[in-house]
């Protein structure tokens, strides 16, 4: 069985990727290879960050690897918070980095007068395998709701309603229903298609 490292320790992401890749690949986490250091994520694009993380693991641990980066792109904010989605609240004086509640409050406040609430989640996965670098993109279009709804998911899920879900927010959907249409699910499916073809 082929082995690949995913540059994350996020159990939710690992589970999602393992489900989509199926039994053809063993996907290991950073913990599994003994990597405990903070991996640099200093690029100003999703592509740059994903590649930076995958290359770091490849260079330091000598393994084939993939890494992802995700951003929420809001039209009324010219694509912000984008690559800064995890830090959006903190960058604007709302709590700590990675605080989902602060991020959401910051976004709702910034959109109070907005004429459009159109937005999209975009995930980029970078794969470094067999000396080659590849990028895979997944997008889900939707809109930012006026207030939080639902209890499922994480991050911006309570205020993001994908076009395909008839007004429901990601936080009102089961994990399976979300994965079927989500940005990360779509990017992961492209990765899986490539891996299955390339590794025949
Ligand atoms: P990361 O690249 O997966 O670490 O995500 C960057 C930021 O986007 C974090 O603030 C996450 O909470 C948010 N984010 C990523 N994926 C999702 C999602 O599926 N739903 C809601 N928020 C997300």
Can you put this structure into words, describing what you see?
The termini are close together. This protein has a single domain, classed as Maf protein. It is built from six helices and seven strands, in the order βαβαββααβββαα. Strand 1, helix 1 and strand 2 form a beta-alpha-beta unit. Helix 5 crosses helix 6. The model has no long low-confidence stretch (mean pLDDT 94). With 200 residues, the chain is an alpha/beta fold. The structure holds inosinic acid (IMP). Inosinic acid (IMP) binds next to strand 3 and helix 4.
In short:
With 200 residues, this protein is α/β, with parallel strands linked by helices. It has helices at residues 11-21, 46-61, 88-91, 100-110, 175-181, 183-198; strands at residues 2-6, 25-28, 65-74, 81-82, 118-129, 132-144, 160-162.
What structural keywords apply?
single chain, 200 residues, alpha/beta, Maf protein, seven-stranded mixed beta sheet, globular, binds inosinic acid
Please describe the biggest sheet, giving its number of strands, its sense, and whether it closes into a barrel. Answer: 7 strands, mixed
Total domain units: 1
Shape, please? globular
| End-to-end C-alpha gap | 12 Å
What percentage of residues falls in helices of 4 or more residues? Answer: 25-40%
Rg, rounded, reads: 17 Å
CATH level-two architecture: Alpha-Beta Complex
| Low-pLDDT stretches | none
Any idea of the CATH class? Alpha Beta
What ligands does this structure carry? inosinic acid
Order of helices and strands: EHEHEEHHEEEHH
Q: Could you say what the CATH topology is called?
A: Maf protein
> If helices are DSSP runs of H or I spanning 4 or more residues, what is the number of helices?
6
How many strand elements?
Answer: 7
Mean pLDDT across the residues is 94
How much of the residues is beta strand, in percent? 15-25%
Class from helix and strand fractions: alpha/beta
